[in-house]
């Protein structure tokens, strides 16, 4: 099986799983308990927090909350920062639903951030939102399109808004500095870089507090009560320490792989379009528009050949084939039905990509059957 | 207190000496309904064209509705026992009209099995009608076109009163006409065709041709929903989901483009015949309506018929779309059929499908291209589901 849906979730790596298993068996104590075994875990937890903060250039005094997922982190931030219906919030409708849905539900007034012709956020609209809104949510790398969004200190002088970054797709792939990006909070996700599902992180700049969504034992600086999941947290740390090296090298290496892949695919099927520019998007996420029948036919044909790609339509819209993200970016209904997303991890190999291209070639004879000009 | 339901049967009286066989079919079906819906011990009394059910527990509306869906049932009504006096009969009738909210026109119909009763049926109806008017201010008489018929039946042991009845689907009991194989698509027509054949006493194996990978597996959910709805009108409903993608691909690769749709159709009927062999079915049923789409022109229908070992029944052949939709709404399949789904035939569809297929080419094509192997592997890999009369899936074999 050749898997190219890493943006949806990475297969856990065996080394990480072994580590997790040992953690489950050995470090089972509740870190909040008073005896020595627990105190050790509690101390270890502080080291872990400190290490993770360093990875995003955060201050030692900042808060780092462990959650169950990126979705929880985003919800906790949006709903914990303000009382319901008291704040003006801004987000692009091309963002992940775990940002859009809680934001639309919670805000008094919401602003949809606009995109420019190159699909980057429109600077003047963004500037305006930063000056007038209370909260603005951004993704460093968009999960769907791979578009890379960045902010510089100069962009945000005298801003009013709290800036929240979702780093789910970029952590472990593209370095991110909370200082340079003037972030006030950020979300990380474990299963996007090979940690078993069930863990997310919410980083908060010091001085910011949240109303908790859950009440209970006041663990995790009382903003998120829940028994500390030490084995999974320490596995997150283990994986993160390994993956945050050579980011830049790999980024350029995968740029090359991505470029080659696109050239090869276009050689097979010249009508394939690549809507997002390489300079402003991630090499790990490739979005293609493949004219012809609805792309889920292509997806299933590849699936039968042992190649997994995504059409990225949510379950509920699978039949109607609406694609909210692409719709917001101005793609037509027809184009929305022709999207294929190929996503890599840093472990993806050239051979795997070669196999994808081979299989893509092989299914052409079947795809040709649907061409209107087809004659027999 | 005991509770009664009166079921009158539809066409069984036509059947002369075959009647006991037909009764057996309908009995078994009603037995199934009671076992699944009423779940309480029930006694039966057969009268010429009626079945009386008696139970110590009240019959729910859901049970009555299920009974009304049994093919062969003309009507279903709750019946209440009363003493054989005008006063008591009227009292029982009014008690059971408590839910009446608006002024309603009615008439009384009386039948006397106990001829020793000292009044004629006409006299009784009049007297009881009079008594009802005294007791309820909402009722008014209309013997020509009443909204409500109050039915009184005088038996030796007492009187039975029923207020209003549920119309049954009528026709003949399931199985009494034999077994067929019905081609089911996700559209409006084929479920209606299946229902109409159920109503004529045909038990059926439903067959859906699943064109994976050209169509996603989501469509199966819809087909199962449709089958569950049709199961309410069947004693036991069997569904086969036959993989069809490979066959479609093989045909598309070898046939003239404009013949694709026709040949897909032909392959479906070929497979249906093979399934019919296994299921001991004597007929194929389709939802064709004359000239609705290109595969339903008389030439193309004839070419399909010619290739089929078994007769093909097309109960919708003369119906307009409006009539079909109206039945679909009545039987509850409309709202399922209307959900969008992928259609592989549309994917493969040529711009101008052939309307009058050349019979020679069709014949030669199926001689030169043997699909037997593909057919039998498709049947072997079919998924099988069975649903009971409540639409619940039975454990598959």
Structure explained in plain terms:
The complex is a heterodimer of chains A (376) and B (397). Chain A has 376 residues and is of the alpha/beta class. Chain A contains 12 helices and 11 strands. Chain A has helices at 14-26, 36-55, 70-81, 97-106, 123-132, 230-243, 247-268, 295-304, 324-328, 333-336, 350-362, 364-368, and strands spanning 2-3, 63-67, 88-91, 109-112, 135-139, 162-166, 185-189, 200-204, 285-289, 307-308, 339-343. In chain A, the strands form 3 sheets. A 7-stranded mixed β-sheet of chain A has the order 2-8-7-6-5-3-4, sandwiched between helices. A two-stranded parallel ribbon of chain A has the order 1-10. Chain A is globular and about 75 Å long. The relative contact order of chain A is 0.15. The mean pLDDT of chain A is 92. Chain B has 2 domains: 3-167, 2-Layer Sandwich (VC0802-like), CATH 3.30.2130; 179-396, Rossmann fold, CATH 3.40.50. Chain B contains 14 helices and 16 strands. Chain B has helices spanning 19-38, 61-68, 86-95, 121-135, 189-199, 218-231, 245-254, 260-279, 298-307, 321-331, 334-337, 344-348, 359-368, 372-380, and strands at 3-9, 42-47, 50-55, 73-82, 104-112, 139-141, 148-155, 158-163, 166-167, 178-184, 202-210, 236-243, 283-285, 311-313, 383-388, 393-394. In chain B, the strands form 2 sheets. In chain B, strands 1, 2, 3, 4, 5, 6, 7, 8 and 9 form a 9-stranded mixed β-sheet that branches. Chain B starts with a strand and ends with a strand. The mean pLDDT of chain B is 91. Chains A and B meet through helix 8 of A and helix 7 of B.
Q: Which structural class is indicated by helix and strand composition of chain A?
A: alpha/beta
Q: Please report the distance between the alpha carbons of the first and last residues of chain A.
A: 34 Å
Q: Count of DSSP helices of chain A? A: 12
Give the DSSP E fraction of chain B (strand runs of 2 or more residues): 15-25%
Low-confidence runs of chain B: none
Output the CATH homologous superfamily of the largest domain in chain B.
HUPs
